[in-house]
Amino acid sequence: MATLHKVCDAAAFEQLRASVHMLSADLDVVAAEAECLEALDREERAAEEREREASGGDGVSSVPVGAAPDDAGARIVQLHTECMRLAAVAARVEALNKGLAAQAGMLAESEHFAQDLADAEARVRHATELLTTSAAAAEKMKESVRA
What pLDDT was estimated at residue 135? Predict the structure, then answer.
């Protein structure tokens, strides 16, 4: 019922429309970020696939048992680099989650402000009606005193 009232009342309708517009913009940002993360994921998979093909394609460590320490060191450096790359992706995901949480709080705050503003507008309209009625009553009293 409250939603129906918001659609019928012009001010409430504008508030609802603005809220929907803000939500739509937030969803667009989330979709763009998801696409970016998917592209990064595809790039990582392609790099891993190339690496597997270059190392024999079995997906197992390229350092055989009993290999020279230099080979093991190279593999450690390679794994460290890969971990750093994944850590950067994880940090980016965490930053996006924090940003979305902050925007959700801002959206709730904006909705609360919009509701407060709509309530204030309603009080102003009511006060205007009271003043108009009072002015009309005062005018009638003046006319009755003159007569």
Answer: 92
CB 44 within 8 A of CB 85: yes
Q: What is the DSSP string of 64-133?
A: -TT--HHHHHHHHHHHHHHHHHHHHHHHHHHHHHHHHHHHHHHHHHHHHHHHHHHHHHHHHHHHHHHHHH
Residues in the chain: 147
The two structure tokens encoding residue 106: 């801002």
Residues 114 and 19: beta-carbon distance below 8 Å: yes
Longest dimension (CA), the chain: 119
The residue assigned the tokens 């919009």 is: 114
How many Å apart are CA 100 and CA 7, to the nearest integer?
Answer: 28
121 in Cβ contact with 15 (< 8 Å): no
Condensed to tens digits (0 to 9), the pLDDT of residues 82-116 reads 888 888 888 888 888 888 887 877 887 888 888 98
Q: What number is the average pLDDT over the span 29-58?
A: 79
Number of Cβ atoms within 10 Å of the Cβ of 15: 20
Q: How far apart are CA 119 and CA 128, in angstroms?
A: 14
pTM tops 0.85, yes or no: no
